[in-house]
């Protein structure tokens, strides 16, 4: 008797989810960047509602995390993805619980559209202890990476870079005298490189960090470009570099505390056109806040 | 200290190769000898035994210590071989730093693509053992004595 009352309550509780405010899909060349600050989500009843959105696999994933903070952040990450993707669907009553996810053959998470092919929406998420972000684009794969600006690495910055970054990037970092400024540039490069590999979606073996260089575009404040080094030959002087505009980058700061890098594949139709990023902070079901709209050349 | 079990060995192998292959299989089923693991047994005209000098539980412990340090976990955090880095809050930058620390600790060199694919303590320990094994062996006297013991066993059975 008691059990059926409980399950009845649970059912009505779950039907009682507030509806999500729908969103217009981003235009081509636009990335919508959403972020959540875990510390700002304190309500246990809200977190309970979030957990009701998750699939069993996702719930298991959250349970696997060691510690309450990690569990909460894992829950928020899945919630952010589900609610954000759901809001862009044209069906206004789209239930975020009905979304299915899969991984591509290399392990990159994607929406499983279940026979509704040719869906234009792409997403990618990244998180740190104190910020969770989700980037959304149309018609172009996207990769994002966020990192705490104050992130300290245990190894010497140059030693790390020599081990993992490209030669040009090591040279760039070596020219920076101030250790703090050098560390910051190292972190920025890390987010840019991660964002590229995630946008590529073919796993790290497809683009080892030392086979490509990301560098600022001279004359721009925040423009970055990608150069790939050719197959390693016996003579390092023979290495040729291919720098093309196939991949566009944006580097921003979020909440004064994080670097965020966005990388998208340049749509043929928009070759050379600038990239725009619209940043919004959100608490799913509660509020959205437009933070900025920026152009990156 | 390892010892041969009392499983009786009866076989009709005409050649040394199949004899020693069977012994290898019996020894594996025998009581555990954790400090020596036989590498892939290569069938060749000459007997060859590959010796691994890194004990698995020891390696797992060393990896756990490095992981705890990198992720700033408390000393009493219970880690097992199956512990996943991501479940402990490690991101890709942490994983790479852990690999660098392991390279320094074990004096090995990890391919970048292998570095990014390590997800658990066991996987890290396995990769380390694999790489250490490929290095010229720097075995202790105790390990060498064990090797000689087994070689004598095998040659006495032939």
Automatic annotation (TrEMBL), chain A:
Database matches in Pfam families: AASDHPPT_N, ACPS
Gene Ontology molecular-function annotations: holo-[acyl-carrier-protein] synthase activity; magnesium ion binding
PANTHER family: 4'-PHOSPHOPANTETHEINYL TRANSFERASE SUPERFAMILY-RELATED, PHOSPHOPANTETHEINE TRANSFERASE
Species of the source: Brassica campestris
Gene3D superfamilies named among the record's database cross-references: 4'-phosphopantetheinyl transferase domain
Top-level taxonomic group: Eukaryota
Protein name: holo-[acyl-carrier-protein] synthase
Domain 4'-phosphopantetheinyl transferase N-terminal: 48-133
Record keywords: Transferase
Enzyme class, first EC level, given as a word: transferase
Residue span, 4'-phosphopantetheinyl transferase domain: 141-238
This enzyme's EC code(s): 2.7.8.7
Xref: InterPro entries: 4-PPantetheinyl_Trfase_dom, 4-PPantetheinyl_Trfase_dom_sf, AASDHPPT_N, P-Pant_transferase_sf
Automatic annotation (TrEMBL), chain B:
Major location category of this protein: plastid
Annotated localization: Plastid, Chloroplast
Pathway(s) per entry: Lipid metabolism; fatty acid biosynthesis
Keyword Ribosomal protein set for record: no
PROSITE patterns referenced in this protein's UniProt entry, alphabetically: CARRIER, PHOSPHOPANTETHEINE
GO MF annotation: an example: phosphopantetheine binding
InterPro entries in alphabetical order: ACP, ACP-like_sf, ACP_chloroplastic, PKS_PP-bd, PP-bd_ACP, Ppantetheine_attach_site
Keyword annotations from UniProtKB, A to Z: Chloroplast, Fatty acid biosynthesis, Fatty acid metabolism, Lipid biosynthesis, Lipid metabolism, Phosphopantetheine, Phosphoprotein, Plastid, Transit peptide
Record bears the keyword Plastid: yes
One cellular component (GO) term of this entry: chloroplast
Function recorded in the entry: Carrier of the growing fatty acid chain in fatty acid biosynthesis.
Protein name: Acyl carrier protein
Entry superkingdom: Eukaryota
SUPFAM superfamilies: ACP-like
Domain Carrier: 57-132
Sections of the chain in a coiled coil: none
Similarity comment: family membership: Belongs to the acyl carrier protein (ACP) family.
Lineage of the organism: Eukaryota, Viridiplantae, Streptophyta, Embryophyta, Tracheophyta
